[in-house]
Write a structure and sequence with these properties.
mainly alpha, globular, membrane, DUF6541 family protein, about 725 residues, transmembrane
């Protein structure tokens, strides 16, 4: 199943990326999920609007149409310009860095060596320096993630027994049962507007293997994003922000699977499947934005194509989970601010009049956004105020887990907490390395490094506001993330890993400079001042002994982080507890082994068109995930309509009154599933279901497993 999901995510998107002219395997793999997610999100909305079913056929047909359009545009544009077809076939979006496969050199540069230098250019297969460290890092991350999941979870068919899991499983189930995969109506009656990009690929995996439960499809989809998409995305970001070097290529992928609880953090908390999918591709968005803000905006031939990729990345992240885009904008704020100053200076040199108009427009935009935000704030909290700011964002997950000093320490050392608010161990080798690299970047005092440091510290400020205080100002600062510290801490690796890689390059450069002062250059020696920069290592460059040593040290460090990391072990233990069954006589967590087994065979009794009545807080809402049957209450909480509220409150007292019978018949509710008490007692959201119990005189037992019992409703003539 994971292979089918992998092909769905990478094959259509990879073809579309290739048609834009990119040939580098690293770029293809990093960019391919973007058009796939965007295409699935858009065509899901379109097909639902026109009344067509969404699935493999519609998804691949949409990809084929897009490929045809891109190919035709790429073929026709050069002819319309009268330039003929270039060697790339006239790609609609040319490779971002000029020549395909080269991350730094422009097309036609001949490798950057002037004619007559006497240097012989070798051709043939690329040197391992271009791909082996990067591949090693990604493979180590994949192995670490797969082994961690296998260690924590006995079977991919098991469910994460958390509040949000019910909703996400049922969204996938609705796509499978109705063929409607639109983010505008994700789960009608529960929540309409919600991004379903992750759920669409889980549905494709389930369609390829219909004999497996939905829970297996969701787990396999998570695994594809965690084991492949995430480390490849981090490699892409590090190469764009720091440069392509063998050692940092290895660190970028390798560290992505073993720092700050990632990639398991959001599997334990929530469980926030779509948010993790968006986090997994967010580094690609930041890498594309970095390239545009640092160089492509100055190049007339690249400014629009590069910006188009940034916009596509925004669309893809939004269809995975649009709130993660807010995290991306937070991390990108220092980069965009520097670009604004540079663009303003360039515009001022070109035309003072245009500069003044642009400055006025920017000021007007800022004032307009500020006014709108102020009006919304005043309406919610100041005018006719019945709920002051202190009355908002007071749920359990919004409460601070630390003092301000403790939150700062946790962020600087990359120490996560699990869903039970237990602190995981600090992995000191990584924490010390981060602090050393942060100090090195600040001491270097170069623009690129300072941008990375500013992003890290800005994220830290918002995180500390979440975790260190419950003051009103902190609620205002963190409201866009529901004052949920885990949503912000999940971005820690995205800024910490590039910062580590940048700091290491600074330290290595300083060390090389000190070593060079003690050497006298011999005949034919190329000094560091004339050698090509490390990020321009091409496919045919040979490795110097120092490069081999740096790669071996990086490999040793990643192996230690992956296989001798108490923080990673504790995170896997937390995930294992999220999947663990309740005891035979326990109500918490939601499912016991007996209840799980009954749910798996429920389809033997319940017809496909029937619905099942039950208290969703006792685990019965997993009916759709395990047996593809529809629960009448498809989530634990929402703004229930009158029929749902009436049946929950009155069925156990009067199961055969006319209104109850009408509701049962109109919705084809023929079954009642008793799985004992709720997994959380005394929760106010459970109040509507407090009186929902089986009624022996109105139903007949059909199947039993331990305490779990399936009844057929016999009242109302059913």
């Amino acid at each position: 199943m994971a292979l089918a999901i992998l092909l769905a995510l990478y094959l259509p998107g990879g073809v579309l990326v290739r048609l834009t002219g990119r040939r580098s395997p690293a770029e293809l793999l990093a960019l391919a999920p973007l058009p796939s997610l965007a295409l699935a999100g858009v065509d899901g909305i379109i097909f639902a609007r026109v009344g067509l079913s969404w699935g493999w056929v519609s998804y691949l047909a949409s990809a084929a149409i897009m490929a045809l359009i891109i190919g035709l545009v790429g073929w026709s544009l050069p002819r319309l310009r009268g330039t003929g077809v270039g060697r790339r076939g006239g790609a609609a979006l040319p490779p971002e860095n000029g020549r395909a496969g080269s991350p730094s050199r422009p097309a036609g540069s001949g490798g950057g060596l002037p004619a007559g230098t006497g240097v012989k250019i070798r051709t043939g297969l690329p040197s391992p320096s271009g791909w082996l460290p990067a591949l090693t890092g990604v493979l180590l991350a994949a192995v670490t993630t797969v082994m961690g999941l296998i260690h924590a979870v006995p079977s991919p068919e098991q469910v994460t027994q958390n509040y949000d899991t019910v909703f996400h499983y049922n969204v996938v189930g609705r796509i499978l049962m109705t063929g409607q995969a639109t983010s505008l109506h994700a789960l009608p009656g529960i929540r309409d507007v919600y991004p379903v990009g992750f759920h669409e690929f889980a549905a494709l995996g389930d369609l390829a293997f219909p004999s497996l439960p939905i829970s297996a499809a969701v787990t396999c989809t998570w695994l594809v994003f965690a084991a492949l998409v995430w480390p490849i995305s981090m490699l892409f970001l590090v190469r764009r922000a720091v440069g392509a070097r063998p050692a940092t290529d290895l660190l970028a992928g390798g560290l992505s699977a073993c720092c700050a609880g990632f990639p398991f953090l959001l599997l334990d908390w929530g469980t926030l499947y779509p948010m993790f999918a968006a986090q997994a591709i967010l580094p690609v968005f930041l890498g594309l934005l970095w390239t545009w803000c640092r160089k492509d905006w100055r190049r007339p031939d690249r400014v629009l194509p590069s910006l188009a990729w940034v916009i596509l990345a925004c669309v893809a992240v939004s269809f995975a989970h649009f709130r993660v885009l807010l995290t991306g904008l937070l991390l990108a704020a220092p980069l965009v601010l520097v670009w604004l100053f540079q663009a303003g200076a360039a515009l001022r040199r070109r035309s003072r009049r245009l500069f003044h108009w642009a400055l006025a427009g920017l000021a007007a935009l800022i004032l307009a956004v500020g006014d709108i935000g102020g009006l919304i704030f005043a309406r919610m909290y100041l005018r006719h105020n019945t709920r002051p700011i202190s009355g908002h964002l007071n749920g359990g997950f919004t409460r601070p887990a630390d003092s301000m000093a403790g939150a700062m320490a946790r962020f600087l050392t990359g120490q996560p907490i699990d869903s039970a608010y237990n602190r995981l161990p600090v992995f000191w080798p990584l924490a010390v390395l981060l602090m050393v690299c942060l100090l090195a970047v600040l001491a270097e005092h170069r623009e690129e490094g300072l941008i990375l440091a500013a992003s890290f510290l800005l994220l830290g400020f918002v995180f500390v506001a979440c975790d260190g205080t419950h003051a009103d100002w902190a609620k205002v600062v963190t409201a866009l993330w529901y004052k949920d510290q885990r949503r912000l801490f999940a971005a820690w690796p995205i800024v910490a890993i590039p910062l580590i890689c940048r700091g290491l390059t600074v330290l290595v450069r300083w060390g090389s400079g000190l070593a060079a002062r003690g050497r006298v250059p011999g005949p034919g020696t190329v000094t560091s001042s004339t050698s090509a920069p490390a990020e321009k290592h091409g496919g045919n460059r040979t490795w110097r002994p120092g490069s081999w040593l740096a790669v071996l040290l990086a490999l040793a460090f990643v192996l230690v982080c992956s296989f001798a990391n108490p923080q990673l072990d504790a995170m896997e233990g937390a995930v294992g507890r999220a999947y663990a069954f309740a005891g035979p006589d326990a109500d918490s967590p939601m499912l016991s082994r007996d209840e799980y087994l009954l749910l798996k065979r429920l389809d033997r009794h319940v017809a496909p068109g029937d619905e099942v009545l039950a208290d969703p807080w006792n685990g019965s809402a997993f009916v759709m995930a395990m047996s593809r049957r529809v629960p009448y209450y498809a989530h634990l909480n929402t703004v229930w309509d009158q029929d749902h509220l009436y049946l929950a409150r009155t069925f156990s007292q009067s199961p055969d009154d006319p209104r109850s019978c009408s509701i049962l018949k109109d919705n084809n509710v023929r079954w009642y599933l008793d799985m004992q008490g709720p997994y959380m007692r005394d929760d106010p959201q459970h109040a509507p279901f407090a009186g929902l119990h089986p009624v022996p005189r109105a139903m007949q037992e059909v199947d039993r497993q331990g305490r779990a019992v399936l009844y057929r409703i016999t009242s109302c003539g059913l």
